[in-house]
Design brief:
Helix 1 packs across helix 4. It contains 4 helices and 2 strands, in the order αααββα. It is α+β, with helices and mostly antiparallel strands. The protein has a domain of 70 residues: Orthogonal Bundle (Arc Repressor Mutant, subunit A).
């Protein structure tokens, strides 16, 4: 079902609101600082995840360059010993055509940080 925006009294149609999931952060380091705590929390939970599942579930903003920055973030999380590869899955991200993606899980270190 399509929704139709009601024109204002002056005849203009208001712009559609931008959801958090569609918002794009212009600076990579600012984006990392914004999304990092969410990934730390998920890593501490110990649940397996893909980066897109977390971005979608928590309505995280997009980085300046989606094609490379999501991978860079995951590499940083891995290098910080917060996550480790847990397996593989088919991507649920629209447009990815079920391509293979890594599944991650918080490391023992990340999970014990939660208890501390």
């Amino acid at each position: 079902m399509t929704t139709i925006e009601q024109p204002a009294l002056d005849g203009t149609v208001p712009a559609a609101p931008v959801t958090a999931a569609r918002r794009r952060v212009d600076d990579y380091e600012t984006w990392v600082a914004e999304v990092w705590p969410t990934f730390e929390e998920v890593a501490a939970s110990g649940r397996p995840f893909t980066s897109w599942e977390i971005a979608d579930e928590y309505q995280l903003p997009e980085p300046p360059n989606s094609k490379s920055h999501w991978g860079n973030l995951v590499s940083r999380l891995r290098d910080a010993n917060l996550i480790a590869q847990y397996g593989w899955a088919n991507s649920l991200r629209p447009g990815d055509n079920d391509s293979g993606v890594k599944v991650w899980r918080g490391t023992r270190s990340a999970r014990t940080r939660r208890a501390a």
